[in-house]
Amino acid sequence: MENKATENAGDGARKGERPLFARRRRMRPPADMKFSYTDVETLRQFVSEHGKIVPRRICHLSAHQQRQLRVAVKRARILALLPFAGRDR
């Protein structure tokens, strides 16, 4: 009889099954990357399709970069460069 710890591979699925969800892996940005509210194309890479800012553990940002991203996205939303909600709302 197998141990239950070995049955779960740590991905939330049993042996031979798909995981419950798959994280969207993104490119690791350069360490000296600066975020500007005017650079909308770069900011859209870090905003989900529902309009939420992607967490640091998924987009591989440092804490300082995540704070810069948050401020830039909020400023872009206020100036109507980015929408507050996603496309379906």
| Estimated helix fraction | 25-40%
Elements, N to C (H/E): HHHH
Query: Can you identify the CATH class?
Result: Few Secondary Structures
Q: Total domains, how many?
A: 1
Radius of gyration: 18 Å
Bin the strand percentage.
under 5%
Number of strands: 0
Distance between the termini: 51 Å
CATH superfamily: Ribosomal protein S18
Stretches where pLDDT falls below 50 for ≥5 residues? Answer: none
- What best-fitting shape do the alpha-carbon axes yield? globular
Could you please say which CATH topology applies here? 30s Ribosomal Protein S18
CATH architecture label:
Irregular
Query: What does the main sheet amount to?
Result: none
DSSP helix count? 4
Q: Roughly what is the average pLDDT, rounded to an integer?
A: 80
Q: Determine the oligomeric state from the structure.
A: single chain
Structure report:
The protein has 89 residues and is an all-alpha fold. It has one domain (23-89): Ribosomal protein S18 (30s Ribosomal Protein S18, Irregular), CATH 4.10.640. 34% of the residues lie in helices and 0% in strands. It is built from four helices and no strands. It has helices at 4-7, 40-45, 56-59, 63-78. It starts with a helix and ends in an 11-residue tail after the last helix.
Would you spell out the secondary-structure blueprint of this structure?
Layout: H1 4-7, H2 40-45, H3 56-59, H4 63-78
Kindly summarize this structure in a few lines.
The protein is mostly helical. Helices cover 34% and strands 0% of the residues.
What features would you highlight for this structure?
89 residues, mainly alpha, 30s Ribosomal Protein S18, 4 helices
